[in-house]
Amino acid sequence: MKYTLILLIALLLAPLASLQAADAIKPNIVFIYADDWGWGDLSCHGNTWLKTPRIDKLASEGIDFQQFNVLSPVCSPSRAAAMTGRFPGRFGINTVFGVGKPPEMPDWLDPKAPTTPRLLKAAGYRTGHFGKWHLGEGKPTMADYGIDESAVYHGPGPSVRPSGNDIPSQAVKFIEANKDRPFYVNVWLHESHLAHSPSDEAMAQWKHLDPRQQVYAAVITDGDNKVGMILDALERCGIAQNTLVVFSSDNGPAKSKENDKGVPGGYRSYYSIGETGGLRGRKTSLFEGGVRVPFIVRWPGHAPAGMKNDATVLTAVDLLPTFCAAAGVTPPADANGDGENLLPALKGESILRTRPIFWRTTYGDKKNPDFWPDLAVRDGDWKLVTTFDGQRVELHNLKTNRTEDISKDQSKDHPEIVARLSKLVRDWYATLPTKADPACVSNDRGTGSEERSQETESPAPTTKAPVRDRNGPFNRWDTNKDGSLSLEEYTTDPKNGAESEGRFKRFDKNHDGKVSREEFVGPSTKSP
Predict the structure, then answer these.
(1) Is the pLDDT of residue 459 over 70?
(2) Rounded (5°) CA angle 40-46-50
(3) How many CB atoms neighbour CB 145 within 10 A?
(4) Which one has a higher pLDDT value, 80 or 516?
(5) Where are the beta strands (DSSP E) in 266-334?
(6) What is the helix, strand, coil percentage profile of the chain, to 5?
(7) Alpha carbon separation from 265 to 200, 373, 461 (Å, rounded)
(8) I need a labelling partner for 175 at 20 to 30 A (CA). Which of 28, 52, 183, 449 fits?
(9) Which domains does the chain have, with CATH numbers?
(10) Residues 305, 309, 313, 319, Cα dihedral to 10°
């Protein structure tokens, strides 16, 4: 009788034990997304003056993918693709969110869009997002995208400073609190985006470099150390062996230039000298320097250590189906997007993608030989870049010409490939929306002109020019709601360029690196 009872209890507990075992083998997923970090900004990618020991070690413990593409050469659309598994143009997101965006663009990412956090949350994962958001600020909350815990800048909800160690510290707290359950967390760093505010420790480490290199090297060191903080937390919590870690970047390095911009923290000059590893173009360009970025995967027991994969072409839209597959989650039919489940590649197989890759941008600069394309498509090893009107094209075989050397343009040698790819990208472009979804437009947008109104209310009828009320823009730009504007917050308008930083300095009357509401709005609302 005694043994019969024991057997009965064991049978009753078996399903519970199986469920616990299933939870135990669900991998945690940590997605570290750097900002403006070039393919050549890693010492493991051959850089001789930038040092990234923590990321290099991550690569030595996993797979360093040599052909990973983001789906836009700028921030917001790139992040939309990484979150949803869909080309950002499907949501009308073709440039960065902020003042000056075109009227056909929504004010935020559609919260109905499938997102990796939402799909994994439904499967029992705890989800978090710490750092940059930049997918709109307005009606939706982070919870609307399936995110349980968050602290962000350029986004809704609890805020976090982009500089310092606030972002990794918040992520570490999340990891420690959820070490006994499966979790998914985005850690979206500020480095190496402008404005550069490196730590004193990192600046001291690189004091032997000339000023042109010192600030950027220090910024990269800070970013590398923040990656290390996350990896150390996983080890400390005893969960590194069951955690899939991905390091990547949202686009290529910013255009190389020197500025005398005021940077909070005291650095009066900094330099955008990130490296592409010889790839043509940079941030805002559809050439590889703008859209090919680092992609390093560590997954103990699954991803072979020290492997370089130069055969598999991965993209940001592949992340959602691949992360879901790693977690054992089958997305519903309505979540099927533009990406492919490339999980075998994360386990060491060299597999070929079957779907073409499409890009569009609003940043085409026809006068610049490395920044002119508006549209691009890759199918197999062939990549075509073109203008909206199709009057200018280049065709490159990325297997033999990864740098897209213009002297090796094969458009005249293969007119049949040009015709096929041109039709492919134009047919795709024709499917994209031409106006914003009304459900994703703020009620206070106004008329929707290309430059959003600086006024919060219509002025009373008068024959004089209306006085501008700066409270509206101040409220929009003060993304962390601390009652002041940082240089980063003030320069969100891509149309302002360097001029916006000069105005920031003029507003910053006490020269503390911040603009208070009183400094910006003034005792009256008169323009300066």
Answers:
(1) no
(2) 65
(3) 28
(4) 80
(5) 270-271, 295-298, 307-309, 314-315
(6) 35, 15, 50
(7) 10, 37, 45
(8) 52
(9) 27-353 (3.40.720.10), 465-521 (1.10.238.10)
(10) 10
Residues 6+ apart with CB under 8 A from 436: 92, 103, 104, 105, 106, 107
Query: Which one, of 129, 247, 251, lies nearest residue 186 by Cα?
Result: 129
> What is the C-alpha to C-alpha distance for residues 71 and 81, in angstroms, rounded to an integer?
7
List the Cα angle 90/94/95 in 5-degree steps: 150
pLDDT at residue number 481: 78
CA distance 436 to 429: 16
CB distance 354 to 422 below 8 Å = no
Tell me the three state secondary structure of residue 484: strand
Task: Return the pLDDT at 121.
Answer: 98
- The model's pLDDT over 390-446, given as tens digits with 9 standing for 90+, comes to 999 999 999 999 999 999 999 999 999 999 999 999 999 999 999 999 999 988 764
Structure token digits, residue 428: 């795709």
The structure tokens listed for 297 are 């995967």
Q: Which residue type does 302 have?
A: H
Neighbours of 96 (CB within 10 A): 22
